[in-house]
Amino acid sequence: MSQFDAVFVGLTTLDIAGRPIRGIPSGGGVEFIEQIRLSPAGTACGAVMNAAKLGIHTAVVACLGDDEKGDFIAGVWRRLGIDGSLIQRTQASETSATILAIRPNGERPALHCRGASDHLFIDEADFPRVCNARFLHLGGSGLLAAMDNGQSAKLLAWAHQHGVTTSFDLIAPNEQTLDLLTPMLPYIDYFMPSMEEAAQISGQQEPEDIARFFLDRGVGTCIFKDGARGSWVFGRGGQLRIPAWQVRVVDTTGCGDSYCGGFIAGLAKGLDVEQACRVGSAVASLVASGLGSDAGVVDWETTRAFMATTPTLPLSG
Questions:
Q1: Which of 41, 82, 86, 155 could bridge 293 with an S-S bond, Cβ 3.0-4.6 Å?
Q2: 165-170 and 133-141 as β-strands: parallel, antiparallel, unpaired?
């Protein structure tokens, strides 16, 4: 029996978010705002926190700086019951962090300081410990310098070959991203970027063509997150559209990451792909209703009640 339901590997940052930001004061001026929050975030961290809130047994594999930001993140993980035995700490760099100025419409321009996440490295000897789970989620490739030199592909291959269900998300794709991804794609069961990211990487425009690009390169199932338009699911047996839920949008930070956490929690609880995607979409909608990458999410029962009583947005596009 696996030690964990799911292990989440990759990018972890401390977000310092404020809202609403209508502009930066000139000179040394001051603008009063309604809310400032510190919250652990990142492509792996945002997913694991929401999965843990939904009641599955999780662990996180991340690299934190030996600083107050790292201590804060580790403390939040402990309070959520996330296993931290695989956390790495480094004195070579400060903990990765982001300043987020949340606009009144929920958009979030970001100022990011790359840091300790670039030092995360998982040696082959540790693969059995890291993959001692039913599900392995890798998030943040492209901002994981040490793992991006081929080690992430080795980890995914090992997990896939040993019967672990794998999922994958990334951030900030560029012209090198496809070369980075190509060795990983055959070992990814659920490929979960945003629709915008998937289109940029593939060079395609139509959802079906974007999905075919990745399926032809070995991905098991494509799940493209598309904001208020919901999400798209493309597998070898067909396609699905999953709606988003109606909420008042406060902050869209971490919505994609939280979708992944909700989806994995749904699978871990025995739901099929469609129902797990609906949970992921609901979790993302809840997160959009507050400030930070885990805002609005309480537990499994509250999330299911939200799904049962809240209307969904119409599908479009």
A1: 41
A2: parallel
Burial of 55 (0-12, 13-18, 19+ CB in 10 A): middle
CA 214 to chain centre: 19
Indicate the DSSP class of residue 256: H
- Nearest-CA neighbor of 231 among 275, 268, 195? 195
pLDDT tens-digit series, residues 64-106: 999 999 999 999 999 999 999 999 999 999 999 999 998 998 8
Residue 5, CA atoms < 13 Å, CB-side half-sphere: 20
pTM: 0.95
Average pLDDT, the chain: 95
CA distance 193 to 204: 14
The closest alpha carbon to 73, from 119, 40, 120, belongs to 40
What is the phi/psi pair of residue 208, to 5°? Answer: -65, -40
CA atoms of 98 and 223, how far apart (whole Å): 26
Q: Beta partners for 38?
A: 16
CA–CA separation, 279 and 297 (whole Å): 11
According to DSSP, the β-strands at 88-90 and 4-10 are unpaired
Tokens of 179: 């070369």
> Hey, what long-range contacts does 112-115 have (CB within 8 A, 24 or more apart)?
112/13, 114/143, 115/13, 115/65
Look at the block and give the residue holding tokens 């999780």.
58
Residue 317 confidence (pLDDT): 64
Contact assessment for residue 8 and residue 44, using Cβ atoms and an 8 Å cutoff: yes
SS3 143: coil
Residue 269, amino acid: K
Contact assessment for residue 264 and residue 47, using Cβ atoms and an 8 Å cutoff: yes
- Amino acid letter at 286? L
Q: Where are the beta strands (DSSP E) in the chain?
A: 4-10, 13-19, 35-41, 58-61, 63-65, 88-90, 97-101, 110-113, 133-141, 165-170, 190-191, 221-225, 231-235, 238-242
Contacts of 29 (CB under 8 A, 6+ apart): none
CA 311 – CA 317 distance, rounded (Å): 19
With a cut of 90, say whether residue 241 has pLDDT above it: yes
